[in-house]
Structures are given as C-alpha cells and as structure tokens.
Amino acid sequence: MPSPADRVYTDTHEWMKQDGAEVVVGVTQFAVNALSDVTYVALPPVGKKFSASEVFGEVESVKATSELYLPIAGTVSRVNATVQGDPAILNSDPYEAGWLIAIKTDAADMSAFMTATEYDAKNEL
Amino acid sequence: MSSTTPDLQKTCFSDYHRKHGAKMVDFAGWDMPLQYAGIVAEHQHTRQAMSIFDVSHMGRLKISGRESNQLVELVCTRNVGHFAVGRSGYSLICNAAGGVLDDVIVSRFENHWLIVCNASNREKIKAWLDIHRENLNVKVEDETFSTAMVSIQGPKVMEYLDGLLPEPPSAIKRYHFQVQHYLIATFNVFRSGYTGEDGVEIICGKNVAQMAVNFLGRSDSGDTGGLKPAGLGARDTLRLEAGMPLYGHELTEAIDPISAGLEWAVARDKEFIGREALENIRVRGAQQQLVGLEITGQRIARQGTVLSNEKGEPVGVITSGSISPTLGKVIAMAYVEPPIAQIGTRVLADVRGTPTDAAVVALPFYRR
User: Fold this and answer.
1) Which of A27, A97, B8, B17 has its CA 20 to 30 A from that of B131?
2) Which CATH superfamily is domain B59-131 in?
3) pLDDT digit string (tens) for B26-73?
4) A65 and B323 in contact by Cβ < 8 A?
C-alpha cells in the first residue's frame, strides 16, 4: 500500500505532518512491519526541547529496539498517551491513531524531506 | 523489501513459507521464517491451540556401525547407553574442559543413532565426531540435506494427529519415538519439542516432505483444524517461557552444564569427554548459576545486559530477554553469582543506561 501523500518522510522512517501550528511526528508502516509486534513505546514529556536529528524516543518489539529521531528542531507540545498504553496501535494504524508526538517548531522546512512517492520508491514499496 | 540472499540454504518448505506470508531471515546460513502472522499471535496460538514449525535447519547426524554405541557414549554427557530402541533424550556434548560444544537430542534406533544438533553447530559437531571416532568401526552420515523436520506443538496436537497419522502419537511416551509408514513414506515421530507444550517432531525424507506437510495441514484449504505455521521468533519466546536453554545464549563453550542447571544430563557412572572437569566443578561448586528474572516495566533487557547489586557491583549478565506473551511481563534468563541465585533476590538490570528493578524467580516461567 502506498504511504499517505499528505506528509513527508525521513531516511530513518519517521513521518511528519503539518497540523496548524504543530508538526505531528510518527513512524512509517514499513518501519513497524520491520519491527513486528511493538511491545513498548518511550516518548518524551511535553515541553521538552530537541534539536534536529536528536533521539526523542524508542520503539521496541520482541526482536529489536529502535531509536526515534526528531527530523527537525522543536518543542514537544503533545504526546500520544494512548499509543504508550497500547503499543499494538502502532502496528495497526501508524499514520493516524498511532501518531507519537506533536511539536512546535520555527524551522518547518518540509521540502528537505522525502515525499510519499520518493519514500516508497526508496524502500521498494 | 530485501530479497533473499542467494547463497542461503533453503528447506523443503520454502514455497510453503512464502505462500503463508512469512518474513524470512538468515538463521545460521538458512533461509528461515522469522514470523507469519506476528510473533505474539503465533506464540499465543501455540499455547492455546497448535502450531507447525519448520525446523529442517537443525542438524541430523546418523551414526551407525558396530561400535557406534562407543562413540555416542564417549561424546554425550548423558548416559544414553541405557536407552532402549525407541528412546530419545536430551544431552550435552562437551569439550575436555567441560565447556558445552552443543546441546542435542540423541535417539536410539534399531541399528543406528541419530543426533539432532543446532544448525549453527552442525559442522563443529561433525568434526568433533570425526576426531573421536579414531579407529572405531563407525560411520557418520549427515542427513540434514536429505531429510526434512517439522515440529508440531500445542495442547490440541495429540487429538489432531491421533486422527491423522497411521499410528496415534498419543501412544508414544514423552521422549520416545516411533517409525511410521504411510503410502510410500517412512517417517519418524518423536514425542518432544522446544515450546513447553505437548507435541511431536517429525523427520521424513526430503522427497516426501512436501506431501507430508500437505498431509499434516490437509484441512488447510478449508478448516485449518487450528494448525497454523509459527516461525523462529515465536519458537524463541516459547522456549524462553519454558525455561529451555538456547545455544549461543545460555550455552556456549565458556559455560558448563552444571552452571546451566543441567546436572541431571551429566552421567556419573560412565566415561565421556569432559567427565573429569565436570566432576571437579561439581565438587568445587559452580561459579555462576542460571536463573530466571522478572523485570519491572515494559522495556526488554536483552542478551548482554549487566546485572548489579544495590552497591552497583556487577553480579551477573542476561543471556536471553523478552516480553512473555503468556505472563504479560518482561522476563529474562541470566547467569549470576551463586549467592544471588536465591529466589526473590533483587538486582538492578542496566537496560540501555536505565537501572531497572529485577527479581530472581523460579524457572520455568511457564508450565503447561
């Protein structure tokens, strides 16, 4: 299935979507498929500041632990507590219910990242 | 997605895996299914119903000849010489220092022995048998590539297979096997497994493997009879819950069977390689002991995680860790200093930089 076209993608399999003044961040279906059953999601507290490419959390499955990178600098404005309580949501719906964090950012230049078409082509989806 | 590495060994069931949507991985040079529906779902299906695992990558070594008993007795720590025809048993193969070269299932047939060893150790064990056969009248044949092996595990297996196989497997005692025939096929049914469930392991010739798997899952086209494929991922979490060691994790050449809690598989009334060293360890007491751990929180403490006491001094290291789908907790096996091995002892596991509370618990974590 093609990745949703309404957002941008990174080499490390995060997605970002502009939502008003916020940018919502998550991980791709390709990434969660590679991890298999997600058993644990670690996310930062609201208010925490990050620089671009900093590790902001961790996604863990039975087989592996994977770090999450924030593509752009920003301050955490919201955290998806539901996905932390029920990490399986990440496997079933990584693009909507499985969003991870929202950030406030000054540097939202989305053109530096891959489109859905580019991301899918790169990962042979 | 990544395509298959061409130089990987394929089992007879390669097409079956792909047809069932398996995610394939390189395991000890074999192209093997890691998972189909998902590790947790396959794990739970095995505990609640039944699953079929392709375990054809396991080494199958046939030892025949007039003096085959002597070779098998020499390399196995277990007193397998007492085995009657039709009996199987778990044993270690150790070096002279008592270090574990492999853990194996040894079976006594009418005119030969079969050693089922780990895929990663097959060449090593073949070489070991070659060195120690010396002038004995013994022939060692590697049947890994001429045969196939599946494991069918779960509480519904006996009922299902009793109605399917020519001879009911429920009549086979635990750790025994039976040679069965169906049409042109001859196959061996072993009442054993690596999941903590009841079940069988079946070895058949490569030429009938496809037929056998169609036959076993013959209700596959409509009603699956509850039999579903499970991969190596679930096999690992199932064996961990059952407290069973995995070579490369709980067992290595640096570990002896006494430390691993496998003293029951070390004979005292026969000669074998490693006997003297193991007797010394037994007298002196093991320097470390394999224990089960329950870890607080949801983060998995994986192999290599260091354990420390409340003073921050290292007291052990984790060999396997996972979530337990049955218990809903994070569990691990670890080697610890003997005073720490007491049930209930609290330690700190360094989970990727975060000290995390853990407690020593009894093994196995799960008993059917």
Assistant:
1) B8
2) Aminomethyltransferase beta-barrel domains (3.30.70.1400)
3) 999 999 999 999 999 999 999 999 999 999 999 999 999 999 999 999
4) no
Q: How many residues does chain A have?
A: 125
The CATH class of the B9-56+145-241 domain is alpha beta
Phi, psi of B90 (to 5 degrees): -80, 135
Distance from CA of A27 to the nearest CA of B (A): 17
C-alpha torsion sign, points B129, B131, B136, B138? positive
Are the Cβ atoms of B298 and A65 closer than 8 angstroms? no
Asked if B237's CB is within 8 angstroms of A62's CB, the reply is: yes
State the amino acid at position B259 in one-letter form: S
pLDDT confidence band for B211 (50 / 70 / 90): confident
Q: What are the domain boundaries of chain B? A: 9-56+145-241, 59-131
Question: Domain range spanning residue A43?
Answer: 8-110
- pLDDT tens digits, B237-278: 999 999 999 999 999 999 999 999 999 999 999 999 999 999
Q: Which of A3-7, B222-226, B282-286 has the lowest mean pLDDT?
A: B222-226
Whether the ipTM is more than 0.90: the answer is no
CB contact under 8 Å between B40 and A42, yes or no, is: no
Peptide bond into B364 cis (omega under 30): yes
The answer to whether position A125 is within a domain reads no
Side chain identity at residue B142, one-letter code: D
The alpha carbon of B78 is separated from its chain's Cα centroid by a whole number of angstroms, namely: 16
Mutation choice for A interface testing from B27, B35, B40, B239 by most A CBs within 10 A: B40
Residue pair A41/A87 in contact (Cβ under 8 Å)? The answer is yes
pLDDT in tens, A110-125: 889 999 999 999 998 7
